[in-house]
Sequence to fold (421 residues):
Amino acid sequence: MSSAMGQTLSHWHIVVAWAIFLASYLVFAIGRLPGTKIDRPAMAVIGAVLMFVFGGLAPKQAIASIDFATLVLLFSMMLIVATLHLSGFFEWITGLAIEHLSPQQLLPGVIFVSGMLSAFLVNDIVCLVMAPLILGLCQRMGLRPLPYLLGLATASNIGSTATITGNPQNILIGSISGISYRDFLGHLGPVAFVGLFVDWALLHWIHLRNGAMTLPPQLNPVPKMTRELRDPEMHPAWPVTVTLAVLLGFLLGFPPPLVAAAGGALLLMQCHHPPKAIYEDVDWSLLMLFLGLFLILGGAEQAGITQQLLGVAERLNLRNHLIFAAVVTLLSNVVSNVPAVMLLKGLITQFQNPHAGWLMLAMTSTLAGNLTITGSVANIIVVEKARSETPIGFLEYMRIGVPVTLITLAIGLLWLTFVRY
Fold:
């Protein structure tokens, strides 16, 4: 009798785990629980708590399901970028653009600067700090900001493909896969580099082939921009030096979480800003999303849900690169790329060549983020920052997002399929 009760309880736990899992991913797909203010990070926390409350996850299992290296690397990179932001580094870059770029050179300037910064710093944070600066830059130069904001969003996604620290899903993949920083950069760096040129060509063709989009004469402000830093006591030299040392540590093969944490700790010790000011620039909601996802999927794994989903994936023949890329692209735009990668990570270890599978997952989930506004957090950040001055419609974004995504994905698939080294 006790055995029957235990079996019934086990079935009940599985049903509840399925309900929590499906409800969580529904919110990840639509962005907010209907009729409430519960967004993706909040749902990740709620789903994780419910897994505990209803017995789907025990404390020991919960600890085992969390990848602490991913959280440490993501948090440390946020600290580094926050310090660069507070020191006026991004304003300094914008000032250089004002002084040295003509209106005709601004689009490639935005694309390659944001792409290169996003390659080594987390792209979401790069967009967060650069979107307002680009709006101000366009105002000072008398240009309509739409193509440059689209350039920021798309280039930040493309550039972030290149390295482990380019975006949150790559940080997760790098931590789980064990692929070295140089190996990752060597395989996906060329895809990102070529992709930035594709992005430039398409944006120029769609928006600027008939000349720069200028503001009406009465709205043209004086093209003047001071090079003042956000805090006159804080100069970007020290944060930039530490950041370069961290990147050098990555390239030399030291563990990225350890190197990034050491860099973050060094920057916290500087006396110009209290740590609280730096913490305010950290994206805590993204960290909570990661933590909640780890726990939700830990509970799903205990209930056998992930094994059942992987069985479905096997029948779809996801080892075929085209099918795999199509499924990852669809999932990344339905539930966002981080939840998609979390869901698919268990499948890659079953591939005949897991190394190639991890690189394919990183490349596809990142480039797929350019398809729609909701495809990546970076896109949403740019659109929200520009809403009051330059509203960007869903279809207006897709006008550039669809061709950029299809062409860069085709380049990436060809590169990873036929180039072996």
Q: What stands out?
A: Residues 3-418 form one domain. The two ends are 60 Å apart (CA to CA). Residues 2-30 form the longest helix (29 residues). Residues 118 and 357 are 23 Å apart (CA to CA).
